[in-house]
Amino acid sequence: MSLSPLIVVKVGGALLTDGNALRHVSESIARRRLRGERLLVVVSALRGVTDELERAATLALDARSGLELVRDVMDRLRRQHESVLSELPGRDAVRLRLQPVLDSIGGLLTGIRLTGELTPRTRDLVMCHGERLAAPLVAAGVLAAGADARDVTSEEAGLVASGTFRVGSCDLAATAPRLAALEHELHDRVVVLTGFYGVNAAGDVVLFGRGGSDYTAGVVAACLHARGLELWKDVPGFMTADPREVPGARLVSELSYEEACELGLYGARILHPRCLEPLRGLPVAVSVRPVADVDATGTLLVERRAAPSAPGVVALAARRGVAVVRVQGAAMVNEPGVAGRILSAMGEARINVDAVAASMTSLSFTIAASDAAGARHALRRLHERGEAGVEDVRVQEQAALLGVVGERVAGDPTLAGRLLARLGALGIDVHLVCHGPGDVSLSCAVPEADLRRALLALHEEFFPAGARPGRRRARSA
User: Fold this and answer.
1) pLDDT digits (tens, 9 = 90+) for 433-452
2) Where are the domains of the chain?
3) Which end is more exposed in the chain, N or C (fewer Cβ atoms within 10 Å of the end residue's Cβ)?
4) Class of residue 203 by CB neighbours under 10 A (exposed 0-12, middle 13-18, buried 19+)
5) What does residue 405 show for φ and ψ, rounded to 5 degrees?
């Protein structure tokens, strides 16, 4: 049969909830392969497994109850993966494939418990096992659906990692020739690859950060010169808002890379922003597709959309669990580099800062609510040392960050006014408003309890009945 150019498919663990879900995904892959398509499938760990592994590694440090806690975690992992493979015809053989991975997890957790030490290197090694468990399941499912398939780990495929543990990157120049060794095999079968991690020059596993399997898929598509990258999801594609918050949300047919990345940063969990990094400047057609019908395009992602005639909002996104930090001080007026020192203090405390707004005497920014105590401590130390003109620090917890995204929205002088007027009419406090680093986003922080009302009101404001978000234009493959 004649074979078409390579397509890289990313399958998230949220799509593999049980045996029926595995069968549906596997049959969709097999059907595409039997049509003549060459497919490389990148998989994530099953839903919740990465968190479970991280939690188990921490629990193992407890010398008194660690053994029992680790046993409980291992039992849950076995049951979860057993429920997914339960309907596979060759499930006994798959169990044999999974057992060494489970044994490896148990050995690592035992080592942590006995030594009382959990290093970043060991934590990454423990956490990568979720993908090592998922890949054999998908490969076995594809085989059962009638197409040849083989699972391959990141180290076998040659994904070379660099950078620090937990948030590493892939060395594309070193990885590309190693991945090229899979080209011949891809003519014969589907290759199912573990996402989320690579291996550095010292042979240590380095994670690519949360959402790192999306990034792996982008790396592979770039290195193997794939024609397309498809991200299979349990939603139709990017929506104008989270349909769980806004029932009237509609599908966005097309987004630019910048718009998609901004939506990801603001909380749309469709795609990790780093996924698109390796693809810039390359002719790879990227799409987000519903797993219910993977032949449907969903949302196309293009490096640049045709410039709209006027600025326009394409989607809203929001993230709960945010805290707003406000630093004030009259001395800040005459203090050069104030913002830099305050934000550097956050960096030294390993606290990620999202949105930032400043005036002559104050600096406001948003962080994860879980980092609120750490931010207070870091800023208190600045105040005690008499640095950065810090006189007063206020932290507003139980907030949410809401992003308004679209081409040139930051340059629209009316948009912020419309946003503030609509929220003000509802009596919703806005803690800060700021533009993103480019011209495609505007964000604000609101009380978390008011987020749903804010989203409903702004969706009505920017997407009135009959509006067409993300207008699609013709595009060559």
Assistant:
1) 988 777 899 999 999 999 99
2) 6-234, 315-462
3) N
4) exposed
5) -125, 140
